[in-house]
Design goal:
This protein is α+β, with helices and mostly antiparallel strands and 300 residues long. The chain has one domain. Helix content is 20%, strand content 51%. The protein has two helices and 14 strands. A hairpin with a 2-residue loop joins strand 9 (191-214) and strand 10 (217-238). The longest helix has 31 residues, at 100-130. The protein is elongated. The protein starts with a helix and ends with a strand.
């Protein structure tokens, strides 16, 4: 009986090791990252950047595989999490980007730009025109966001047409108008507060494999991953106000498509929004995948 139990334990440990190996093999096949490798991409406007695989880094006791970029990203509005991973991990279940902070920064840049142009500026103009004599106001803004730490890019081993949760985030953009002057004109609490809430969710599916043409060449058997993104905005006011529906941004839906080539990695990314006719793309223009044995490898 004891021998049989030991045999079962050995089999279970071998199975666990095999599953981990299988997951890592899938990840390395579609997402190679040997030190010194690089990938150069060009977007739809002809702008280029290069991603370099660097040595793993430790953060809060966790070891992460890592990338760096040239030129470095300077504006969070230009951040695209599928093409700009900095840290990530490979397990026997997932290739996951460690990018919660980056997604929060990008969300802040996008929401701030949109609301300052579409809400804040018109609000300032309206207040300047309608505030009674003897009343002054001061506008301040703040932003809060909480994104999950990891974005789950694809399962290992790959399964087709099974949906998973890629990422989720909640964000708030708060406009506060402090009013001073005539007591009869001052709202309860002395301020008007507009809280814009944004609930973001993204789900993914591995759809198929297909051939993809890029400036770097034609790649067969590419994994095609589709990620459905949705952002639902709502507005709360304090004190409660009527007629604010027009201030709420439209619900946004988008389709992100990611193609990964065997032994190369990401070769193309496309982003389509239902609120725009523009398709934003990144395509691979050149690359080099080094090998651990020689320090050199395939170059295009």
């Amino acid at each position: 009986m004891l021998k049989r139990f030991r045999s079962i334990c050995i089999l279970l440990s071998i199975f666990g090791f095999s599953a981990t190996l299988m997951g890592n093999e899938w990840a390395n096949y579609y997402f190679p990252d040997t030190f010194g490798s690089y990938w150069t991409y060009e977007n739809q406007d002809g702008e280029e950047f290069t991603r370099y695989a660097i040595a793993p880094e430790e953060i809060d006791g966790e070891t992460y595989r890592a990338f760096t970029y040239d030129p470095p990203l300077e504006d969070w509005e230009d951040y695209r999490y599928l093409i700009h991973p900095y840290y990530y991990q490979v397990s026997n279940d997932w290739v996951a980007f460690f990018n919660g902070d980056e997604i929060e920064n990008a969300m802040k840049a996008m929401v701030t730009q949109q609301l300052e142009k579409g809400v804040l500026q018109p609000l300032k103009e309206q207040l300047n025109q309608t505030v009674p004599p003897g009343v002054t106001f001061e506008i301040s803004t703040s932003f809060e966001a909480e994104a999950q730490d990891y974005s789950y890019i694809f399962p290992t081993p790959v399964t087709y047409n099974e949906e998973w949760n890629v990422l989720a985030m909640n964000a708030k953009f708060i406009i506060r108008i402090d009013v001073a002057g005539d007591p009869n004109e001052i709202p309860p609490g002395g301020a008007l507060i507009f809280t814009f809430n944004f609930d973001v969710s993204e789900t993914g599916r591995v759809k198929t494999t297909e051939t993809v043409e890029t400036p770097a060449g034609t790649f067969d058997d590419c994994l095609k991953i589709e990620i459905q993104a949705e952002m639902v905005p709502t507005l709360e006011t304090s004190p409660p106000m009527e007629g604010t529906e027009s201030m709420v941004p439209e619900m946004a839906k988008a389709l992100r498509t990611l193609w990964l080539a065997p032994n190369v990695g990401i070769v193309k990314v496309a982003h389509e929004s239902e609120n725009s006719d523009t398709v934003n793309t990144f395509e691979l223009t050149s690359y080099e995948i080094t090998t651990t044995e020689s320090g050199s490898g395939e170059t295009k």
